[in-house]
Amino acid sequence: xxxxxxxxxxxxxxxxxxxxxxxxxxxxxxxxxxxxxxxxxxxxxxxxxxxxxxxxxxxxxxxxxxxxxxxxxxxxxxxxxxxxxxxxxxxxxxxxxxxxxxxxxxxxxxxxxxxxxxxxxxxxxxxxxxxxxxxxxxxxxxxxxxxxxxxxxxxxxxxxxxxxxxxxxxxxxxxxxxxxxxxxxxxxxxxxxxxxxxxxxxxxxxxxxxxxxxxxxxxxxxxxxx
Length: 226
Ligand SMILES: Cc1cc2nc3c(=O)[nH]c(=O)nc-3n(C[C@H](O)[C@H](O)[C@H](O)COP(=O)(O)O)c2cc1C
Prior knowledge:
Helix content: 10-25%
Bound molecules: flavin mononucleotide
Strand content: 35-45%
Shape: globular
Low-confidence stretches: none
CATH superfamily: Electron Transport, Fmn-binding Protein, Chain A
Order of helices and strands: HEEEEHEEHHEEHEEE
Mean pLDDT: 89
CATH topology: Pnp Oxidase, Chain A
Number of domains: 1
Number of strands: 11
Distance between the termini: 31 Å
Number of helices: 5
Radius of gyration: 19 Å
Oligomer: single chain
Largest sheet: 9 strands, antiparallel
CATH class: Mainly Beta
């Protein structure tokens, strides 16, 4: 992580750190993800898995766990453009984050990202992990034949004392994907302070060799009318 982070990153991290999920089974911050399907928007809720700095690319990445068979994954493969919306009720702040994206799934060849994928899957609660082990692809009609998989839902035989058995982890790994969003525009607004709005846009031209403490230069800030 750079010594000094861009203002929007600091704000987002602070707001996320104040979030306490009312549901112990689902601890990720809920937000909206928009993809494009045949030129039209598709929006749904997802959970924020992480925000990290990719030091090799000198870019920030927002991670979302998903099923590689889901419609949203298909849409991202066809069109990388995505948008995220976070709404922080307590702070009364909205972040609309536009960016490019890519999927890390079982077909990926990047060893570092594949390792990260396995790591994030390991952090999921057993029930969540089971969602990814299911033979049915999300969004397919009930009653659809399940190909060569013989079971629809995992049963008690799929668990041992420490959670899902290894083969279930492996089955989940077959389907679990990380959606990596690379933000380029952040449209932030506050419903407090009589309405305040700011825009940060990533400057591709800014010197890539900037020292960490100058990171903000790559993210120039503009005040907007609310
Ligand atoms: C609060 C909430 C959090 C969710 N988190 C995720 C998530 O992190 N990843 C995911 O793939 N789906 C998540 N979902 C389910 C998606 O919204 C669901 O897959 C969607 O309804 C349909 O996705 P599709 O566009 O791929 O068909 C979440 C749903 C809710 C209500």
